[in-house]
Every structure is written in C-alpha cells, then in structure tokens.
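Troubleshooting log. The previous structure file for this entry was overwritten by mistake, so regenerating from the original sequence record. Sequence copied from the archived sheet and checked twice against the printout by T.R.
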Amino acid sequence: MKAGMTAALVCGVGACGGEAGSETAEAAATTAAATLDAADVAQASRATLREGVPVSGPLEPKVNITVGAPIAEQVAEMFVDEGQPVRQGQPLARFRDDVVRAAAASARADVATARMQVTIAVAESSRAEALFGEGAIARRDHDNALLAVESARARLALAEAQSASAEDRLETATLKAPVAGVISRRHAQAGDRVDFGEPVVDLVDTRTLQLAASVPTDRLAELRIGRPVSLRVAQLEGTEIAGRISRINPTADPATRQIKVYVDIPNAGNRLVGGLFASGRVVTHEVVDAVAVPRVAVRYEGEERSPIIYVVDHGKVARRPVGLGIADEAQGLVQITSGLAPGETVIVGPIEGLSDGSPVEISGSPREAAGGRAR
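Regenerated output below.
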C-alpha cells in the first residue's frame, strides 16, 4: 500500500500567506487518499464451495496381483512384456512340461486299462450269474464274480481321478492371467528356473485406482461409505479428480489413533497411473453459488472476535460485520452469508493506517475472489 499526497507544500509564510497557507497544507494532508495495489484487494464472487475431512496419499491400482509359478520348473517361454494389456485367461508364460506331459499320458493309459478290466469283470459276472442259475457253480464263486466287478469299477474311478489331476498339472504348466489388466513387472525370463509360488509377473488393473488415507478418529462421525471425495493430483498440474469412500477400517491404529479410509477413483481413459500423489477432502458440505471471498479478507476484532471485512465503497474504506458459512480450504475461500454482495471490493492486504471512512484509491483492477494476504 502506498500513500499519495495530493497537496503541494507551501514555500514560506511570507510567500504563501502566512497562517492561511499553513491551514491549506494541513487540510490537503488530511484528505490525501491511500493507494492500494491490485494485489491488496479482491472482488467478492459466487463460487461452489466444499468443506470436508482432509485426505492424502499415493494412488495405487485397486487390483494389484503378483502371479506366482504354478510348478517348480524352468520357464520355457514368456508371452508378455511389461506394459502389455492382457485379458482374463490369456497365456502369460509356458513352463517345461516334459515330466507332467509324460505323467498325463501314463494316467490316460491307466484309465484305458481300468476300463478294459471293468468290461472283462462285467462279462465274467454275467457268465457266473448264468452258471449259478443252472447250479453249475457255488454261491461263493458267484459272489466273487460280483465283487470283481465292484473292484474293477473302483480301480477305474481311481485311475480317472489320477488322470484328471495329471491333466490339471499339465494345464497349469501354461500360466494364465487370473484377471484382465496390464503387466506392470516381469520377474522371470525364458530359461529361468523358478520354485513353486515364486513371482513370475505383476498384474494390475488401473481402471479403478485406490487411495488409502489416515483420518483422525474425531472425524469418524463425518465419514460414511459412498461419501464423495474431491482430490487433486500435483503431478498433473492440480488436475481435479472425483472418487467415493469404498471402505472404512473398523479399528484405529494403536500408535497414531487414526483410521484407514479407502477411496475408489474411476480412471476413465487411463489418464492416471499408480504412484501419483493426490490430496483433497471427503466432501461433507457443499454450497453452490455461494458468495465467496478470500479467507484472508476476514478479520476478527473485539473481545468476541467478531468477523469483519473491510470493503472499498465509493472510494472510502467501509468496515462491515459479516456472517460466515463454510470454508473451502482447497480454494482458500470462505462463504459470506450476510453483510456483503457479489462484486463488492474487499481488502485482503494490510490495513495499517486505514479505518472506517478512510479515502482510498486502487491501482489496477481487483481480481475475483482468490487467495491473498492480510496482516
């Protein structure tokens, strides 16, 4: 803020009329207007304001799977690379299957043999039934023939189960994607030998990202599943993104006394990637078309610390008691519920030397409501 004097100093008593000249200079000094820079003022404007519980943290894919080796064997071939999208069930890698393939073939042969034995046992049982009816064989021989059929069928069931298991092991020698997504990392190459369960690839689904944030327990009452969350991503020039609370941890961290809140963020067009840092708030209150001023325009005076705003009205400072609504921390704005109209000019800079009724002039055009400073 600059002080501009509009009167010229008198040169002396004799030249300027003595006492009368002194009175003229004093009056000119009294009516001098203070000059406010454009940065010291702002215009009250209408805006959508949001208030809520602060949250922040890195964005991570909601689906993040490490796919392990289904068998302890050498990798014969890798079918995917990092960054490659895959569909559910698509082959990712093939392991050497010499041993399991031979085992599957042997199991199929055992099934064929068992089926032949069942056929033979059934035929023998039929002959025994006929002979027993004629009295040509004893009941013991007849019963043994029936038991042979049951035994053959049991051996067939066992062979079929073993064959199914061998076929399953042969099938798992080709590693397939459990879900649709994108390969984020390859842990193995063709020729590597891996143990059972050892990581082969990491698979992520970035269609939905998730933010896990810690919130003080005293804000728990303001949270609920489905509540909207407004976030900004610093690495994308403050791009605003929207999400919703999907889960709330039912227990607090014993060390920090905070609870975990999980926010799901739809990622249409895959414009976001895992690892970006986002910050914002769970929206608990929203006011559309609110009268808003920079938070620093509000000053608190008197014993009751009543909210006051200084405005420039017809070239003079006017002190205005105002009513306050919600405060939007992200935008640095506060809602004015009474005492101010949109378009009025408010002082956001220092007010030392100014009081109600002080003449002022503004150098430049005031900006619409935005962050400023006050002292």
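The domain at 97-172 is CATH 1.10.287 (Helix Hairpins). Archived copy saved in two places this time.
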